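Hi P.,

Sorry for the delay on this. The queue was packed all week, but I finally got your sequence through. Input first:
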Amino acid sequence: MVSLLFLIIQAKAPAQDTTTYASPALKAVIERAAAYNAGPPPDLRGYTAHYESDVAMAKRLPDRIEGTSTIEQTAGDFTWAVGHGFGQHQLGYRVITTGVPLPASAALSNGWILPTLTGPTLDVFGANSNAATAVGQDSTGDHSVRSPLGPDREQYYYFEGGDTLTMEFPVGPPQRVVRITVWPRDDLAKPAKVFRGNLYLDPSTGAIRRLRGQSLTKGGPPPQGRAKHLNRLIVNAAVADIVTTEVPGAGWVPTYQRIELEVLIPLTTQSWSVLRLMTKLSDVVPEVVRPGEAAPPTPTLVPGRSAVSKDSLHAFDDWKLPPDKAVNSVYLSDLFDVGPPSFRLTGPPIYFWRGPTTLNALQFNRVDGLYTGVSGTLRLRDAMPGVQILGTAGYAWWSGLFRGGITATRVQGHWISDLQATRITDLTTKFADPLDYNRGLRALFQQDNYDYVDRASVGAGLGRYFSASGPGSVIARFDYVKDYVTPAELNYGPLGQSYTLNPYVTPYEYPRVQVAVTWNPEISSHFTRPGLGLHASYEAGGGHLPYQRIQAGLVGRANWHQFTFTIVGDVGATISDAPPTQQLFLIGGSGSLPGYDYDQFGGNVGALTRWMLASPLPFLQTPLTIGKATIPPIAPNLSYRVYNGYTESTNAGADAALSAVGTQTVNGVPAPFSVPSNRIVSTQEIRLSLFGTLLGFGVAKPFEAGTNWTFTFSFAQSF
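Then the structure:
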């Protein structure tokens, strides 16, 4: 029908006015859709529905890795009274977290559920709910987004598209829709909240079946002063994906709602911080005026947000969905095509003062002391599709060394390639957690639980992702590497904690080949997504100390009611007659075998497993309100952990390398810093964590007879 309408109108209209509509046929389609979506069905007084929402703090890290660290799940009744407002009455609340449980939902005091996509405005975040709120919190509709199908649409928008296609929907089967591209005007005299993105219309009626795009403010004088500079530094956006379902009597109800507030932090990182809100409406019951019957009463509601008592919130058990399913089923990149132009993969070249992680901007460890740096990324986009150039430079204040490098990367389809030259403080001797970006400042507050090597390298890599958007991949690299002696510059931390020596690094130059395979690398102790992740790598180094290093591991996570089970396992071997010390495996102490000394066990063969069963305690789990401020809940979490480790030295060269790691004095007698365990050693830890995993207080004890419990403290550390 729509295709025939296009042909008829185009045949009758030789001249086209493209100031608002790309064609007269498109104008006719939009006018028809505007009439259909002008308001709710005339007999509808309102509706009530059950809702379940996940409010999550999500992160997108380098190499496509994305996950949520905190999920607040709420459930209750949603009520819309046409012409009177709408409200969310919360009946249940629960949270799962692997980090600081930021009280995101508490900041959305007016709610976040849209009752309808009809009418002159899109009432996001409680706008037009008629809730009684403080000044600045929009509940009057003054800051609602102007609907692209509203009566004043030509004042705010121009339109393109009109093609009919079959489209995959996030819920339900594929749908046949008409796609309309909406652009806000650049010549608005006054600031206005507008929409930029795509509308997907039902071909037969013109009803909005789906909306994907960004809400933003356009018009008025450009920002000046501090606001101008902040807009340049802080890239942020509010992006939505909303799907409607036809409910008899209620019309098309937005039953699937995904809204994301996205922020790129200035100067520090390419990692995205995302507040993700996902809502499902079900059991929709309309109140309809029926012929010959008395009009039903307008649905009773408390505008905005309301809730039962805290005890009742936590006693709620009528959940329909697990808290980790919806928010972990989508990716940030799903909405890149309708997000801000600076986020997109196409367009003119664009530069950001940002690096891959916060580690490029700020670190503290016993080798470098304080490190500060700055990074920049140039994305060439249309000039050279898929290519970006990253540069970083910084200074290590205690060791007195400049560090940094430059990397050029190209992503084309499933393929990724890079050229790079760097000098960095790299991790060595550990079964390191690749997603432990919190380690940058951890040594300020506790023992430094990593070993380091001062390493310069230049090389190239080629890899392939297993899917179009996921992070799993196989990557091969060739580098020429130079390792330098890397002593610990600090013996004590700023809080008086003692640091151990940094294991001796054998200085030499060598060519190196690496091949690594990862599958589901986003499964980790840092994110809430359940599942199993695997990784394996092979490395061969040349020079006068040739070696081969083989390593493999897994991460598993399961969420069951309030319990979380996590397992991390690693095994590795270095094959060499004379292995460099930096290619050994050292375990012991915080993060690997608490209750034993740091790096107590070592060898050219190593294995480590870490098991954790954790559960939140049934109190202090909701955000705290102090005056007008809302702070994160204390969220106490109790966990029981078991660690198993094994190391072995298989030849004389490995023995010599282990002896070269360093010595310590025990009861006045020199002793090796690390020795082979030659058996499985096990330890246990009971930890009370506060504010997610921010602060951890525990006790640990080896399973060996005659050992004692020792106190443990951890800062922003999962294991």
